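From: lab user (bench 3)
To: helpdesk
Subject: output format question, protein + zinc ion

Hello, I'm new to running complex predictions and I'm not sure whether the block I got back is the full result or only part of it. Here's what I submitted:
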Amino acid sequence: MDFLNPEAHRKDEVAIEIDLAAGVLERCDVCRTLFDRGHDERLPTADALALELFDRDDPRVAIFKGDRDDLLRRLRTARKPIPYSCLCENTG
Ligand SMILES: [Zn+2]
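Helpdesk reply: Thanks, we reran it on our side. This is the complete output you should expect:
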């Protein structure tokens, strides 16, 4: 994530939100940490969800100004810093 570029950061947040909704990413119920178990098979679901949001002119994707490719790319790149499991799972 690029914290020096707030717009890019916001775009990654939208991508992560869609990845979560599609099941590509998961969130720990205990510590709220995001984790990534490599559910690549869910990426087509995330893509479909993203395109649906563009079709509906959903305010969540307004920041992309119609650039669908940018969002589809970020559905993948925004996952990179996300760990495989959360901390409480590692210690528990
Ligand atoms: Zn946890």
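A quick orientation on your result: The chain is about 50% helix and 5% strand. Let us know if anything else is unclear.
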